[in-house]
Design a protein that fits this description.
With 245 residues, the chain is of the alpha/beta class. The chain has 14 helices and eight strands. Strand 7, helix 13 and strand 8 form a beta-alpha-beta unit.
Protein backbone atom coordinates (compact mmCIF):
# COMPACT_ATOMS: atom_id res chain seq x y z
CA UNK A 1 0.00 0.00 0.00
CA UNK A 2 1.12 3.57 -0.71
CA UNK A 3 0.72 5.51 2.52
CA UNK A 4 0.95 9.28 2.96
CA UNK A 5 2.45 10.52 6.21
CA UNK A 6 0.68 13.47 7.81
CA UNK A 7 3.64 14.70 9.83
CA UNK A 8 1.87 17.30 12.07
CA UNK A 9 3.39 20.57 13.26
CA UNK A 10 4.77 19.39 16.58
CA UNK A 11 6.50 16.37 15.06
CA UNK A 12 7.90 18.42 12.19
CA UNK A 13 9.13 21.22 14.40
CA UNK A 14 10.17 19.54 17.65
CA UNK A 15 10.09 15.75 17.39
CA UNK A 16 11.22 14.75 13.87
CA UNK A 17 12.37 11.38 15.23
CA UNK A 18 8.68 10.45 15.61
CA UNK A 19 8.08 11.04 11.92
CA UNK A 20 11.17 9.06 10.99
CA UNK A 21 10.09 6.21 13.26
CA UNK A 22 6.63 6.14 11.65
CA UNK A 23 8.18 5.90 8.18
CA UNK A 24 10.64 3.23 9.30
CA UNK A 25 7.87 1.15 10.85
CA UNK A 26 5.53 1.32 7.86
CA UNK A 27 8.33 0.56 5.40
CA UNK A 28 9.42 -2.42 7.51
CA UNK A 29 5.87 -3.72 7.18
CA UNK A 30 6.20 -3.54 3.41
CA UNK A 31 4.48 -0.27 2.52
CA UNK A 32 5.63 2.68 0.47
CA UNK A 33 5.52 5.95 2.42
CA UNK A 34 5.26 9.37 0.81
CA UNK A 35 5.39 12.75 2.57
CA UNK A 36 3.40 15.34 0.58
CA UNK A 37 5.56 18.48 0.71
CA UNK A 38 2.62 20.91 0.53
CA UNK A 39 1.19 19.86 3.90
CA UNK A 40 1.10 22.44 6.69
CA UNK A 41 -0.79 22.88 9.96
CA UNK A 42 -4.21 21.22 9.89
CA UNK A 43 -5.84 24.23 11.58
CA UNK A 44 -6.76 22.52 14.83
CA UNK A 45 -5.13 25.25 16.91
CA UNK A 46 -7.12 27.97 15.16
CA UNK A 47 -10.41 26.13 15.49
CA UNK A 48 -9.93 25.22 19.14
CA UNK A 49 -9.03 28.77 20.13
CA UNK A 50 -12.03 30.36 18.41
CA UNK A 51 -10.68 31.35 14.99
CA UNK A 52 -12.33 28.85 12.61
CA UNK A 53 -12.37 31.32 9.71
CA UNK A 54 -8.56 31.45 9.81
CA UNK A 55 -8.54 27.64 9.65
CA UNK A 56 -10.45 27.54 6.37
CA UNK A 57 -7.39 28.13 4.11
CA UNK A 58 -5.53 25.47 6.10
CA UNK A 59 -8.35 22.97 5.60
CA UNK A 60 -8.35 23.77 1.89
CA UNK A 61 -4.58 23.29 1.70
CA UNK A 62 -4.73 20.02 3.67
CA UNK A 63 -7.36 18.55 1.36
CA UNK A 64 -5.34 19.56 -1.70
CA UNK A 65 -2.05 18.28 -0.29
CA UNK A 66 -3.41 14.80 0.37
CA UNK A 67 -5.75 14.54 -2.63
CA UNK A 68 -5.55 11.13 -4.29
CA UNK A 69 -3.74 9.45 -1.40
CA UNK A 70 -4.89 5.91 -0.74
CA UNK A 71 -4.42 6.25 3.01
CA UNK A 72 -3.13 8.99 5.28
CA UNK A 73 -1.47 8.12 8.60
CA UNK A 74 -0.63 10.50 11.44
CA UNK A 75 1.33 9.79 14.63
CA UNK A 76 -1.15 12.03 16.47
CA UNK A 77 -4.61 11.41 17.84
CA UNK A 78 -5.42 15.12 18.16
CA UNK A 79 -4.53 16.06 14.58
CA UNK A 80 -6.32 13.01 13.22
CA UNK A 81 -9.36 14.00 15.28
CA UNK A 82 -9.27 17.48 13.78
CA UNK A 83 -9.27 16.09 10.24
CA UNK A 84 -12.09 13.70 11.12
CA UNK A 85 -14.32 15.94 13.21
CA UNK A 86 -13.56 19.56 12.31
CA UNK A 87 -12.51 20.00 8.70
CA UNK A 88 -15.81 19.33 6.95
CA UNK A 89 -17.66 21.30 9.61
CA UNK A 90 -15.46 24.37 9.06
CA UNK A 91 -15.93 24.15 5.28
CA UNK A 92 -19.72 23.96 5.65
CA UNK A 93 -19.80 26.79 8.15
CA UNK A 94 -18.29 29.12 5.56
CA UNK A 95 -20.37 27.90 2.64
CA UNK A 96 -17.92 25.69 0.76
CA UNK A 97 -19.93 22.54 0.13
CA UNK A 98 -17.43 21.09 -2.35
CA UNK A 99 -14.60 21.44 0.15
CA UNK A 100 -16.74 19.87 2.87
CA UNK A 101 -17.42 16.85 0.65
CA UNK A 102 -13.73 16.49 -0.21
CA UNK A 103 -12.78 16.87 3.46
CA UNK A 104 -15.20 14.10 4.44
CA UNK A 105 -13.76 11.79 1.80
CA UNK A 106 -10.22 12.47 3.02
CA UNK A 107 -11.25 12.03 6.65
CA UNK A 108 -12.58 8.57 5.84
CA UNK A 109 -9.11 7.45 4.75
CA UNK A 110 -7.15 9.25 7.47
CA UNK A 111 -5.95 7.18 10.42
CA UNK A 112 -4.12 7.57 13.70
CA UNK A 113 -1.11 5.21 13.66
CA UNK A 114 -2.45 2.49 15.97
CA UNK A 115 -5.80 2.48 14.11
CA UNK A 116 -4.04 2.01 10.82
CA UNK A 117 -1.86 -0.83 12.05
CA UNK A 118 -4.62 -2.77 13.79
CA UNK A 119 -7.73 -1.99 11.71
CA UNK A 120 -6.36 -1.49 8.20
CA UNK A 121 -3.26 -3.69 8.14
CA UNK A 122 -4.61 -6.22 10.64
CA UNK A 123 -1.31 -6.27 12.53
CA UNK A 124 -0.66 -6.32 16.27
CA UNK A 125 2.84 -7.80 16.23
CA UNK A 126 5.03 -5.41 14.23
CA UNK A 127 8.27 -7.21 15.05
CA UNK A 128 9.42 -4.64 17.59
CA UNK A 129 11.93 -5.15 20.41
CA UNK A 130 12.08 -2.72 23.33
CA UNK A 131 13.49 -4.12 26.61
CA UNK A 132 12.10 -1.47 28.96
CA UNK A 133 9.44 -1.15 31.65
CA UNK A 134 6.74 0.96 29.97
CA UNK A 135 3.42 2.53 30.93
CA UNK A 136 0.88 3.92 28.45
CA UNK A 137 -1.04 7.20 28.70
CA UNK A 138 -4.17 7.27 26.48
CA UNK A 139 -4.45 10.84 25.21
CA UNK A 140 -7.81 12.61 25.37
CA UNK A 141 -8.46 12.99 21.64
CA UNK A 142 -7.50 9.40 20.86
CA UNK A 143 -9.54 8.10 23.78
CA UNK A 144 -12.66 10.24 23.49
CA UNK A 145 -12.92 11.41 19.87
CA UNK A 146 -11.21 8.64 17.90
CA UNK A 147 -12.06 5.90 20.40
CA UNK A 148 -8.89 3.95 19.65
CA UNK A 149 -9.60 1.87 22.73
CA UNK A 150 -6.99 -0.77 23.49
CA UNK A 151 -5.33 -0.77 20.07
CA UNK A 152 -2.09 0.83 21.34
CA UNK A 153 -2.02 -1.60 24.26
CA UNK A 154 -2.51 -4.56 21.94
CA UNK A 155 0.48 -3.39 19.91
CA UNK A 156 2.61 -2.84 23.02
CA UNK A 157 1.78 -6.29 24.42
CA UNK A 158 3.39 -7.86 21.36
CA UNK A 159 6.65 -5.91 21.65
CA UNK A 160 9.44 -8.34 22.59
CA UNK A 161 11.24 -7.54 25.82
CA UNK A 162 8.74 -4.87 26.88
CA UNK A 163 7.32 -4.97 30.41
CA UNK A 164 3.96 -3.19 30.17
CA UNK A 165 2.56 -1.84 33.44
CA UNK A 166 -0.88 -0.31 33.90
CA UNK A 167 -1.06 3.43 34.54
CA UNK A 168 -3.32 4.40 37.48
CA UNK A 169 -6.23 6.64 36.40
CA UNK A 170 -4.96 6.32 32.86
CA UNK A 171 -8.04 7.92 31.31
CA UNK A 172 -7.57 11.20 33.21
CA UNK A 173 -6.27 14.17 31.16
CA UNK A 174 -2.62 15.15 31.63
CA UNK A 175 -3.56 18.85 31.66
CA UNK A 176 -1.99 19.96 28.39
CA UNK A 177 -4.95 20.64 26.10
CA UNK A 178 -3.01 22.92 23.75
CA UNK A 179 -3.52 26.54 24.79
CA UNK A 180 -5.37 25.34 27.91
CA UNK A 181 -1.96 24.85 29.53
CA UNK A 182 -1.16 28.51 28.82
CA UNK A 183 -4.52 30.09 29.63
CA UNK A 184 -5.15 27.95 32.70
CA UNK A 185 -1.62 27.31 33.89
CA UNK A 186 -2.45 26.61 37.54
CA UNK A 187 -5.13 24.05 36.72
CA UNK A 188 -2.93 22.49 34.06
CA UNK A 189 -0.04 22.18 36.51
CA UNK A 190 -2.26 20.50 39.10
CA UNK A 191 -3.53 18.01 36.52
CA UNK A 192 0.03 17.33 35.40
CA UNK A 193 1.08 16.66 39.00
CA UNK A 194 -1.66 14.03 39.29
CA UNK A 195 -0.59 12.41 36.02
CA UNK A 196 3.08 12.35 37.01
CA UNK A 197 2.16 10.82 40.36
CA UNK A 198 0.48 7.98 38.48
CA UNK A 199 3.39 7.52 36.09
CA UNK A 200 5.94 7.40 38.90
CA UNK A 201 3.81 4.93 40.86
CA UNK A 202 4.30 2.40 38.06
CA UNK A 203 8.11 2.58 38.43
CA UNK A 204 8.22 2.61 34.63
CA UNK A 205 11.35 3.68 32.80
CA UNK A 206 9.26 5.03 29.93
CA UNK A 207 5.84 6.66 29.59
CA UNK A 208 4.47 6.35 26.07
CA UNK A 209 1.50 7.81 24.22
CA UNK A 210 0.30 8.47 20.68
CA UNK A 211 0.55 12.27 20.86
CA UNK A 212 3.77 14.26 21.06
CA UNK A 213 1.89 17.16 22.67
CA UNK A 214 0.92 15.20 25.78
CA UNK A 215 4.35 13.59 25.93
CA UNK A 216 5.95 17.04 25.77
CA UNK A 217 3.83 18.16 28.73
CA UNK A 218 4.41 15.03 30.81
CA UNK A 219 8.06 14.77 29.83
CA UNK A 220 8.70 18.38 30.77
CA UNK A 221 7.25 17.80 34.22
CA UNK A 222 9.20 14.59 34.76
CA UNK A 223 12.46 16.21 33.67
CA UNK A 224 11.99 19.00 36.21
CA UNK A 225 11.61 16.35 38.91
CA UNK A 226 14.74 14.52 37.73
CA UNK A 227 12.57 11.46 38.10
CA UNK A 228 14.53 9.19 35.78
CA UNK A 229 11.40 8.36 33.77
CA UNK A 230 11.34 9.60 30.19
CA UNK A 231 8.65 9.93 27.55
CA UNK A 232 8.83 8.12 24.20
CA UNK A 233 6.25 8.18 21.41
CA UNK A 234 4.46 4.94 20.58
CA UNK A 235 5.85 5.07 17.03
CA UNK A 236 9.41 5.05 18.32
CA UNK A 237 8.78 1.95 20.44
CA UNK A 238 7.06 0.11 17.60
CA UNK A 239 9.88 1.02 15.20
CA UNK A 240 12.59 -0.34 17.53
CA UNK A 241 14.18 -3.68 16.67
CA UNK A 242 16.97 -5.88 17.98
CA UNK A 243 19.32 -4.82 15.21
CA UNK A 244 18.33 -1.17 15.37
CA UNK A 245 16.83 -1.14 11.88
Amino acid sequence: MRVALFVTCLVDGLYPQVGRATVRLLERLGHEVVVPPAQTCCGQMHINTGYPRLALPLVRNHVAAFAGCEAVVAPSGSCTASVRHQHAEVARRYGDAALAEAAEALAARTYELSEFLVDVLGVTDVGAYYPQRVTYHPTCHSLRLLRVGDRPLRLLRHVAGLDLVELPDAEVCCGFGGTFAVKNADVSTAMLADKMRGVLATRAEVCTAGDSSCLMHIGGGLSRLNAGTRTVHLAEILASTRDGR
